[in-house]
Amino acid sequence: MSENYRSMWESLGLDLKAHDALLDVLGKGYRDIFLAQKNRPQGMRYFDFVMSEVHGLRIKELLDEKAAGRKVIGSFCVFVPEEIVRAADATLVGLCTGADFAIDEVEKYLPRNTCSLIKSAFGFKLGRVCPYIESSDMIVGENTCDGKKKSYEVLNSLVPNLYIMDLPQMKSAEGKALLKAEYHRFKEAVEKLTGITIDAARLKKGISIVNNKRKAIHRLMNLRKANPAPISGLDALLTNQVFFYDNPVRFTDSVNKICDEVEKRIEKKEGVFTESAPRILLSGCPMAVPNWKLPWIIETSGAVIVGEESCVGERGTRNLTDDSGKSTDDLMDAITDRYFKIDCAVFTPNTDRLKHIMEMAETYKVDGVIHYGLQFCQPYLMEAIPVEKALVSKNTSTLRIDTDYSMEDIGQLKTRVEAFIEMVKVK
Ligand code: BJ8
């Protein structure tokens, strides 16, 4: 990334030395993992560019928007409705939660046995290496799992602009009423922050922008049903990760361009892996940038990931928001309906997720499912067992992986994943 951004990073209060070290590791990881792949769609070059500028040009764009009076809102969860943010001409960005940073500092604030995702958010803040959190005019923390909920009490002392969104735990009428009330409260907070009154026309526009982004991703995911796989799971994951950072209209365009290219590949029966490569569904905790460890292990062990049952994947993007309502209230109801369907493991019971995993295993014609749980993530680790049982009862091979963001277990993970892939091949 260019030298030109140093004064920008400095103005955001970043620790330049630590930030340089982070960018070095990120750049190397990206080259080794993504650029080393063969036969990628040409359209992935755009995503290579986005990643090379993820702390550079994209931050400059956000700061330019801020200078023009627009606001930036940071989020840690797919329950934060982007439609409402867009309706106020503001930008929603996912905050960095995909790598270990400043762990010693983090453990002065959080217990050691906290999941890596939460620790990562704190590490990026405490290490002063995340330009997104430093650019945010509002940071939304949501009451999902206990770890996040309690950690936001601590985060509140580290940032000046934390907004807490309460969320239901049950898919009941009362749960839905709570979500609706919280989305109305959030709308008011966004209006106050931006000085813009969100009316039906604005909401419709916000819904359309976000739906278009989702439709492009649906199109790409649908194309991944082809055999041979026309795009790697790593590249598809990258598009899902960039979903949270990029300008949404440009993102939509770029994903659609990849789809045009991938459609041609499918016609010609061209793939990134051979037809006989085992097809894997990855299910579980979200994988934020630069959490690429497990997908990289899977795809360098001879299998291809054809779907992600994850918030950085289909759990986060699969449903559209109905934009047919005429009034603000109708559209707010439609937004509530859409988000209430998200089957995060923090809900109890959460049978929809199990159903969705089974459906995905079938539609993507997978040979095996790898369930990815972050250590100390009780919701997903608890659900991993019934998920495995249900899949095995349908004769779908399943491997449960519990890991974190460290690189220490790479050798052990590789051995387990390779053995699983061999077993799936024999089957
Ligand atoms: S909607 S999955 S993005 S909460 S990994 S912090 S659950 S202990 S991230 Fe999530 Fe929203 Fe749900 Fe999706 Fe807790 Fe588990 Fe850590 Fe997690």
Q: Report the span from N to C terminus.
A: 46 Å
Uncertain residue ranges: none
General shape: globular
How is the main sheet built? 4 strands, parallel
The overall average pLDDT, rounded, is 97
The helix content is: 40-55%
The quaternary state of the protein chains shown equals single chain
The chain-level structural class is alpha/beta
The fraction of residues assigned to DSSP E strands is 5-15%
Which ligands does the model contain, each kind named once? Answer: Double cubane cluster
SSE series: HHHHEHEHHHEHEHHHHEHEHHHEHEH
Q: How many beta strands in the DSSP annotation?
A: 8
Radius of gyration: 21 Å
- Strands side by side in the biggest sheet: 2-1-3-4
> How many DSSP H or I helices?
19
In short:
The protein has helices at 6-11, 16-35, 44-52, 57-67, 82-87, 103-106, 116-126, 131-135, 146-155, 173-194, 200-223, 233-242, 248-267, 293-299, 314-317, 328-340, 351-363, 378-393, 410-426, and strands at residues 72-75, 91-94, 138-142, 162-165, 279-284, 304-309, 368-374, 397-403. The protein has 427 residues and is an alpha/beta fold. The radius of gyration is 21 Å and the shape is globular.
